[in-house]
Amino acid sequence: MNLKKGRRRGSPDTRESILDAARRLFSEKGFDATTVRAIAAEAKVDPAMIHHYYGTKDQLFAETIQFPIDPNVLISQIIAGGPDTAGERLVGAFIRVWDSPVGAAGVALIRSAMSHEWTTRLLREFFTTQILRRVSAELQLDPKDAQLRVNLVATQMAGLAVMRYIIKIEPLASLPPEQVVAAIGPNVQRYITGDIA
Amino acid sequence: MNLKKGRRRGSPDTRESILDAARRLFSEKGFDATTVRAIAAEAKVDPAMIHHYYGTKDQLFAETIQFPIDPNVLISQIIAGGPDTAGERLVGAFIRVWDSPVGAAGVALIRSAMSHEWTTRLLREFFTTQILRRVSAELQLDPKDAQLRVNLVATQMAGLAVMRYIIKIEPLASLPPEQVVAAIGPNVQRYITGDIA
DNA sequence: CGCGAAATTCAACTAGCGTTGAATTTATGG
DNA sequence: CCATAAATTCAACGCTAGTTGAATTTCGCG
Question: I want to staple B119 with a disulfide (CB 3.0 to 4.6 A). Which of B58, B84, B113, B144 is the partner?
Answer without folding.
Answer: B113
